[in-house]
Specification:
heterodimer; A: 112 residues; mainly beta; seven-stranded mixed beta sheet; 0% helix; globular; B: 112 residues; six-stranded mixed beta sheet; four-stranded antiparallel beta sheet
């Protein structure tokens, strides 16, 4: 069990560019979550997958954001036309359907 | 809206002193409650969780929390602080949805 893996750990991009992040959950976990954490705040829920189905999305997930989980394994989160307000830590978590979720180390995005 | 409130964004204690981090929740039904710890530039690690049953919950690293329904509280304690406990702590709830709702966090400083 290698835990939840996220790639890259850090990303610096220019405003207006597109970025994509990857999350590899714990192998037997069928639930996968994305959260966003800004400085001085707790994580905020973005979206949730059960297997390959995206079952819940937050209002925070504007039309510039899209998440996928093909084949119910890894997931990607894409942000199009990045804005400075998108700068944050993007956290991925997975669970097996039990209550607790296990988090990855996050991808820190800086938009300049 | 169902929420989590952490009283005190910063708490400072001396090494060996009692740690008390406060968390109150609002919920129309008893929620599932969690405490997570986050070290700088890292993801979140689960310390403990309350689901049902015993209201005093023991977690890792000597931490424990007590669920008090009458006070809608789930405060985190540790009898004796260690330097390695310095981190940010997040209280979270889950209820009626798959998503975790987090408080804003409390940064714990441990002084030698």
């Amino acid at each position: 069990d290698t835990g939840v893996s996220q790639d890259p750990r850090h990303k610096i991009t220019k405003r207006g560019q597109n970025v994509t992040f990857r999350c590899d959950p714990i192998s037997e976990h069928n639930r996968l979550y994305w959260y966003r954490q800004t400085l001085g705040q707790g994580p905020e829920f973005l979206t949730y997958f059960q297997n390959e189905a995206q079952l819940e999305k937050s209002r925070l997930l504007s039309d510039r954001f899209s998440a996928e989980r093909p084949k119910g394994s890894f997931s990607t989160l894409e942000i199009q036309r990045t804005e400075q307000g998108d700068s944050a830590m993007y956290l991925c978590a997975s669970s097996s359907g039990r209550l607790e979720a296990f988090f990855g180390q996050g991808t820190r995005l800086t938009v300049v | 809206a169902q929420s989590v409130t952490q009283l005190g964004s910063h708490v400072s204690v001396s090494e060996g002193a009692l740690v008390l981090l406060r968390c109150n929740y609002s919920s129309s039904v008893p929620p599932y409650l969690f405490w997570y710890v986050q070290y700088p530039n890292q993801g979140l690690q689960l310390l403990l969780k309350y689901t049902t049953g015993a209201t005093l919950v023991k977690g890792i690293n000597g931490f424990e929390a007590e669920f008090k329904k009458s006070e809608t509280s789930f405060h985190l304690t540790k009898p004796s602080a260690h330097m390695s406990d310095a981190a940010e702590y997040f209280c979270a709830r889950k209820g009626g949805s798959e998503k975790l709702v987090f408080g804003k966090g409390t940064k714990l400083t441990v002084n030698p």
